[in-house]
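Q: For a teaching session next week I want to show students how multiple molecules come together into a single three-dimensional assembly. I've collected the sequence lines for a complex. Could you give me the predicted structure tokens for the whole thing so I can convert them for display?
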Amino acid sequence: MEPGALVVRRSIQIAATPERVWQEFEDPERMKRWWDLDTPNVHQRLVRYEAGVGGWLEIEGLHHGHPFHFGGKIVAFDPPREVTMEHDWMPSQGWTVPTLLTVRLTANGYGTLVEVLHHGFERIGDQALEAFHGFEGGWGIEELDALRRIVEAG
Amino acid sequence: MESVLVVRRSIHIKAAPERVWQEFESFERMDRWWGVLLGTPEAGKPLGQRLRAYEPRAGGRIEMEVMFDGEPARYGGEIRVFDPGREFTFENDWIPNRGWLEPTFITIRLTPALGGTLVELMHHGFERVGPDAAEQHAGYEGGWGMTQLNALRQIVEEA
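A: Of course. Below is the structure for the complete assembly, covering every listed component.
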């Protein structure tokens, strides 16, 4: 899914093939190893993950002390290239449709570039710019750092 | 300047690119946002950076400074693209060099979007620095905050 103008991007380079990186997307146990976080600013748990198109991803936690609960349906699942899911507050906070969260893997001469792209803010209505700016200020790279450590460790 | 290892931050400003670009036109205006300070500037923390030199033209210099291990550390380089209303790109390396084989690039790109301007800050070209390119990219991906872009937006939207 090609993002529109309002996209938040974070990225990391991993010294492994996309096929190897994608193994960490294949089931809830492996996903939890890099989505579950306990850092000074972020505590979160992957509370539901069903791989595949029509599946679901849901996370819950505290971000700088503020509780959050997000989830949505997986709308693209293309091993080892892309997973895209709908991403909305649970329960809804008034977005007319969910935003989209894409994790994209691209092979290059050094291994795999992994990008997290949070997009689709144009779709959500009046809160588009406020939400876009909030998430641009909010996303860290803790998940990507963890994914890299896990994959490069073996 | 195609690069795979890119760090990107972005913001939407409710003003035309020509209006946003006015904030790039002199040292004094650039210093209000690119040099904004939220505390003592320190490498890897989103507290800002001191603007030490700025010649707003292609071929001019831009230099910044933060504290690094308790000592002031300078970085920046030659301005490579100065395209009013559209793109500002400069070479970015430590001054003096700390071992990078070639400088990285920092680009600020303005694009009309949603009745205003999308401003993208892209730090790229990490492939050029040498064997620890991935490590350097990851470090800056974790280090860049929204301090400068937030300040730019506030200045333009409140003027």
